[in-house]
Amino acid sequence: MVCNCFTRVLDLFFSPVPDPSALPRFPGDRADNLFMCYDEAKVAKTAAEWDAYPAVHKTHFGYYTWPKKMLVYDPKGRPKLDRTADDMNDVERIVFEFFQDEKRVDKLVEFLSLEEHKGRDKFDSRKFLLFKGLFRWL
Prior knowledge:
The protein is an all-alpha fold. The protein has helices at 47-52, 90-100, 102-112, 125-134.
């Protein structure tokens, strides 16, 4: 199930959308990817400025070249954060109720802290994506 808030494509933020085949193919900072680079002079100071800035999910997009189709987060599709359980859909409510139970959270943290390969475990991108998805609006 794909949430509507992720389905806006890059051309909603930039026009015209660069044609990937017409752009130079070399890595690094270029005119076409500067919007994704940190610029101290353009730091958002208000909620409106923050929401106007496109958040690209894949950090490697644009570094070498652009994909043919690219999705960005839609700040207008973001749900309110101060909702009650009654305001949530069924899936959100189940997740919300799970994290309201301290025993379940403790058990989850204990489970996710287990080493699969004693002494050889490294960063687990699956666990990262789990938490990124759960807490993306916080």
